[in-house]
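Onboarding guide, step 5: your first structure request.
Type a short instruction followed by the sequence, for example:

Predict the 3D structure of this protein.
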Amino acid sequence: MAVMVAAKPRRVLRRMTERETVDGMRIAVVGAGVGGLTAAIALRARGLQVDVYDQASELTEIGAGVSLGGNGMRVLDALGLGAAVRGASAALQRIEFHHWRSGSVFYEHPLGEWYEHRFGGPFLGIHRADFHQVLLDAFDGQPQLGRRCVALNESADHVSLVFADGGSARADVVIGADGLRSAVRSHVTTSTEPVFSAMSCYRGLVPVDRVPGGDTFALTFFLGPDRHLVAYPVRGGSLINFVAYVPDPSWTLESWSARSTAAEAAAAFDGWTPAVTTMLGNAGEVGRWALYDREPLRRWSTGRVTLLGDAAHPMLPHAGQGSNQAVEDAAALAAYLSRDLPVAVALQKYEQVRKARTRKIQMGARSNAACFQLPDGPAAEQRNARLAALPDMVGWIHEYDVHAALD
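The system replies with structure tokens like these:
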């Protein structure tokens, strides 16, 4: 077991006064998701002017959970958002791995106080809509909705954004935080097709009293042949969020609005422990996503345009780090853009400090799926034995302090 170390003190960013504003620089963020809003909040905290644009006509509630670790919470604490995030979350007290058929636990480890003491922040489960609302409340103003960016025209001293509605805008810097199928990415680098994992997932929420043993759930994995399920509480423990992964080369629709049914999800796990099948069968709305990522990009930036979050490094969800990495990106980018540096230099420094880390996590997320979906037998037994070293194996992810990593 790893040796515990004292938690690092939290840093809090002080909002700059008007006199400290960075030369009137105006920044456009394309995408009002977790990464885009966190970037906008971090940039404004450092005195920069920010406009946020999103193609959605309204920001609707998405029935899915997000896990936040110490590395992401360090950034949110520094932005003064930690209390609001904690208040909307469920603190995850341990991690458990269960056998797919018997439901028995073959590995567990404490989180809670142990995790916070070692990694300097909590491990939380939060409903994506609740997290998004915390960010919207902290953003001083409203994102401009119904503004789908279709082109960028970059010159030596500014960038013009062209929207599908015929409108336009002008900025000194553009940040593409518009997800896996980013429109901004095609301005930055040669477009490549997303990589399909030949896997999809069912996602949904179930009232805790309709999940067998739900009141004891923490970060809970059920591992079995060719599929696995992850579940954890959100909204103070009143709901259990589940993500159930299945192989399916024919389901290629990657969309937040794609729907399935509780019966279909439960049937996909026929023969599994009743803890799984009952939970799936009791879900209300069930979404279904095909899982894609992209090969790591060689370049994230031009002179005045850069990428963030899934637009830069879309990753499969098997490491639980998508939102955390977007939040880290936001902190690094805001720090460099607030310095007295040429824009192109600031963007290059941001790219250099983020690329190696996000690439490593991307590749790890890919390999985790196969590890989680082994049939019973020697390979699964070897994996289970390796889990004893899990805190040390993932320590480099969770102990990371993006502020300390900046040069």
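Each response can be followed by summary notes, for example: The longest strand covers residues 195-207.
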